[in-house]
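Collaborator request, handled under Task 6.
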Amino acid sequence: MIHHVTLETRREDVDDAVAFWALLGFERVEPPSERLASIAVWVQRAGTQVHLLFHDAPVAPARGHTAVVAEEYDDAVARLERAGFECRPSTQDWGSPRCSVVSPGGHRVEVMAFPPNA
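Structure tokens returned to the collaborator:
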């Protein structure tokens, strides 16, 4: 199990990034120390966290991405699209509906109905 992933985000984009992750079922949680809270905001769903690390010039890899399973895939895609995000369908290599969306801050996020070998 992966516990967390860290994505760089400008401080001024944090609220938008938290709102984006909320569309996928993540809730804001407090980091365990003031030091960590001064450098990042955390969101969590089912024990998995995304740490939004403050950076003046964040890097979002062109091909890199974070993938999440959305148990209610169609509902999650509808929420993202209603919020103005473009969900680009991906091939269903293992039969799972999937799409890619770009989060605030420019990170590519793959949303899937179920993972391979589920």
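The cover message to the collaborator said: "The two ends are 14 Å apart (CA to CA). The mean pLDDT is 95. Please let us know whether this matches your experimental observations."
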